[in-house]
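I have been asked to look over a protein record a colleague put together. Alongside the sequence sits a line of tokens, each denoting a local backbone shape. I have pasted the whole thing underneath without changing anything:
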Amino acid sequence: MNTLIAYGTKYGCAQKCAMELAKELNGNVELVNLKEKGIGDLSRYDRVIIGGSVYIGKIQKEVTEFISANLDVLLKKEVGLFICGMQEGDMMEKEIADNFPAELINKAKSVMNFGGEFNFKKMNFMEKVIVKKISKVSSDKSDIHHENIKKLAMDLN
């Protein structure tokens, strides 16, 4: 089975999660950072996993553009979706619904929240101010849900 993991990342959390996911999947897995390169013909993949990090409620535009350009093809594939972010519960469910088309969510074999990270060393001044004010966090924090990465892999294997 050939699998594509297409993701968008700003500070590396989604990339870290995608790499961990790739190790858990059966078959051939190709990782593509949508910010670095495009993807040609999707016909060579049996399944496609799409994800990215959410900032101020929005996933990276490269992820949105990839989905929009390929939605018809994606709806004919086995699909998994993931989102990286520090929100939990109803807020995370809302972010998933706001960032992926409903028909793709309904088609997906698995949709997971992989948690997230705050990496202050990589943030600009305004991002630090916003994170400190909204999240009440003032230093690096990692809350990656490794069990959800494994669950998505199990659901698709």
